C-alpha cells in the first residue's frame, strides 16, 4: 500500500524552525495533535504520500480557505477538494512547479485571477467542477500548455461576452476533454446550453450590449484621474509624480506602464483593497508622509513586481495580517517614522520579514508601549528569550526565527514547556 507520512502544512506561515521539523516527518506528531484543539482553525493537517513514485499532497476536507504552503516542491498531485477556497490569486501555486494534477472541486471558488495557474507548465489535469464560477478568461489557461483534462461542470456560467474566449478555446477540436458537460446558467435565453456546443456569436449578440455589460464586471471606480492630477514623465523611467497634491485617495487610473509612483506628502489616510490594480508594472511606490493609519488586506493586490515601498513618516501602528502577501518581489521596505506598537499585532510584520530574509527594511522601532519605547523591534523580541543566550548570540538578523516563535506561543497562551521540546509545533496563526 502506500506509505503515509503525516505532515502539517501551514496555512499561511511557518518559522524556519517548523520547516526543519516538518521535513522530519511524523516526529512529534502526537504532541501536535494534542494542541489541535486549541489551534485547530489555524492549522491544517494534510497527508503526503507516494504512489507509483509520484508524490501526492492530500489536503481534502480541511476547511481550507487558501492554498496551503508546502515546503516540498516535488509534489505531483495536489488534492484540495471539498475545502472552502473562494478565490485564487495570481501565482497561487508558485510553490508547486511540478504539479501534474490539481483537484479543486467542491470548493467555493468564484474568482480566479488571470495568472493564478502561472508556472504550472506540466499540469495535465485541472478539476474545477462544483464551484461558484460564472466567468473565466481563456488567459487563465495559457500557462498550462499540457492541459488535457479540464472539468468545469456544475458552475453557474454566465454566458455573455466575458466568456467568449473561453468558449472558443473549449471548442477547438484538439481540446476534446476540456470543459465537457459545463452549461450556461445565465442569461435565461441560453440557460442549459453546453459551453462545448453553444454558438459563440450568441454570447455577444450586439456590440452595444457588450459595452453596457462591461461595467458590471469588477471594475475600479474612477475617483480621480492620475494623469490629469499628477505629472507623468517617461524618461529616464516612467514616473508618476503626485507628490504634495493634497490627495486624500490613491488616484484611480494609474497608467499601467508607470514604473515609479510618488504619492508622498499627501493626505491618504487609508488604503482600501485593490487601490493599485491598474499599476501592473510599478516597481517603486512612495507613500511617505501621508498620515496613513490603516492598510486593508489586498490593498497592494496587483503590485506583483513592486520592489520598493516607502511607508515612512505615517501613523502606522502595525501591519494587518495578510497585507504583505501580494508583494512577491519586494526588496526594500522603508518603515521609519511610524508609531509602531510592540505588542501582539506587530508580529505579523515580524514574521513576514523573517520569512522573507531578502527584504531590506529600515525604521522598525517601537514607540509604544512605554516600556519598549525607543527599542528596536529586534531588541523587543529578544526580551522574550532572556533565558537562552545561545540564540541571542546566533541571531544575526533582526529577529531569530526561534526567538520569534517563542514570543508567539507565549502570547497565544500556549505553554509548551522546555524550549527544545516545542519544536513539534508546526504552525499557528498570528492574529
Ligand atoms: C519618498 O518621498 C520622500 C519625500 O517626499 C523622500 O524623502 C523619500 O526619499 C522618498 N522615498 C524613496 C524610497 O524614494
Ligand atoms: C512627516 O509628515 C508630515 C505630514 O504628515 C509632514 O508635515 C512632515 O514634514 C513629514 N516629515 C518628514 C521628515 O518628512
UniProtKB/TrEMBL annotation:
Signal peptide range: 1-18
GO cellular component labels: plasma membrane
Recorded superkingdom: Eukaryota
Domain (LRRCT) ranges: 155-205, 338-389
InterPro entries xref list: Cys-rich_flank_reg_C, Leu-rich_rpt, Leu-rich_rpt_typical-subtyp, LRR_dom_sf, LRR_TM_domain-containing
Pfam families with a match to the protein in the record: LRR_8, LRRCT
Keywords, sorted A to Z: Leucine-rich repeat, Repeat, Signal
PANTHER family per UniProt: ANTIGEN BSP, PUTATIVE-RELATED (PTHR24369), INSULIN LIKE GROWTH FACTOR BINDING PROTEIN ACID LABILE SUBUNIT (PTHR24369:SF213)
Name the record gives this protein: Leucine rich repeat containing 17
Naturally occurring in which organism (per UniProt): Paramormyrops kingsleyae
Organism taxonomic ancestry: Eukaryota, Metazoa, Chordata, Craniata, Vertebrata
Amino acid at each position: 500500500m502506500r506509505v503515509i507520512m503525516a505532515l502539517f502544512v501551514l496555512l499561511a506561515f511557518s518559522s524556519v524552525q517548523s520547516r526543519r521539523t516538518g521535513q522530519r516527518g511524523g516526529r512529534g506528531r502526537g504532541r501536535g495533535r494534542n494542541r489541535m484543539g486549541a489551534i485547530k482553525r489555524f492549522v491544517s493537517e494534510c497527508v503526503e504520500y507516494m504512489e507509483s513514485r509520484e508524490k501526492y499532497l492530500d489536503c481534502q476536507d480541511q476547511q481550507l480557505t487558501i492554498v496551503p504552503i508546502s515546503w516540498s516542491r516535488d509534489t505531483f498531485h495536489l488534492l484540495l477538494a471539498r475545502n472552502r477556497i473562494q478565490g485564487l490569486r495570481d501565482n497561487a501555486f508558485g510553490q508547486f512547479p511540478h504539479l501534474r494534477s490539481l483537484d479543486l472541486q467542491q470548493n467555493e471558488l468564484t474568482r480566479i485571477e488571470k495568472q493564478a495557474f502561472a508556472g504550472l507548465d506540466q499540469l495535465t489535469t485541472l478539476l474545477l467542477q462544483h464551484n461558484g464560477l460564472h466567468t473565466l478568461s481563456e488567459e487563465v489557461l495559457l500557462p498550462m500548455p499540457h492541459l488535457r483534462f479540464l472539468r468545469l461542470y456544475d458552475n453557474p456560467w454566465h454566458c455573455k461576452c466575458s466568456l467568449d474566449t473561453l468558449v472558443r478555446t473549449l471548442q477547438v477540436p484538439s481540446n476534446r476533454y476540456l470543459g465537457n458537460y459545463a452549461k450556461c446558467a445565465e442569461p435565461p435565453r441560453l440557460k442549459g446550453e453546453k459551453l462545448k456546443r453553444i454558438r459563440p456569436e450568441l454570447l455577444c449578440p450586439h456590440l452595444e450590449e457588450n459595452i453596457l455589460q462591461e461595467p458590471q464586471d469588477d471594475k475600479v471606480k474612477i475617483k480621480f484621474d492620475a494623469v490629469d492630477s499628477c505629472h507623468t514623465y517617461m524618461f529616464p523611467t516612467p514616473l508618476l509624480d503626485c507628490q504634495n497634491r493634497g490627495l486624500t485617495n490613491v488616484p484611480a487610473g494609474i497608467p499601467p506602464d508607470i514604473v515609479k509612483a510618488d504619492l508622498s506628502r499627501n493626505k491618504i489616510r487609508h488604503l482600501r483593497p485593490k487601490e493599485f490594480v491598474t499599476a501592473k508594472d510599478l516597481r517603486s511606490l512612495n507613500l511617505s508622509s501621508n498620515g496613513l493609519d490603516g492598510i486593508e488586506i489586498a490593498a497592494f493586490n496587483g503590485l506583483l513586481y513592486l520592489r520598493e515601498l516607502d511607508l515612512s513618516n505615517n501613523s502606522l501602528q502595525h501591519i494587518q495580517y495578510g497585507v504583505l502577501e501580494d508583494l512577491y518581489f519586494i526588496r526594500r521596505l522603508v518603515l521609519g517614522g511610524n508609531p509602531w506598537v510592540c505588542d501582539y499585532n506587530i508580529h505579523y510584520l515580524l514574521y513576514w520579514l523573517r520569512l522573507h530574509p531578502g527584504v531590506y527594511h529600515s525604521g522598525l522601532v517601537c514607540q509604544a508601549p512605554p516600556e519598549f519605547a525607543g527599542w528596536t523591534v529586534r531588541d523587543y523580541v529578544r526580551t522574550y528569550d532572556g533565558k537562552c543566550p545561545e540564540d541571542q548570540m546566533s541571531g544575526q538578523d533582526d529577529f531569530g526565527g526561534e526567538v520569534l516563535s517563542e514570543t508567539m506561543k507565549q502570547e497565544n497562551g500556549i505553554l509548551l514547556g522546555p524550549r527544545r521540546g516545542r519544536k513539534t509545533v508546526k504552525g499557528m496563526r498570528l492574529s
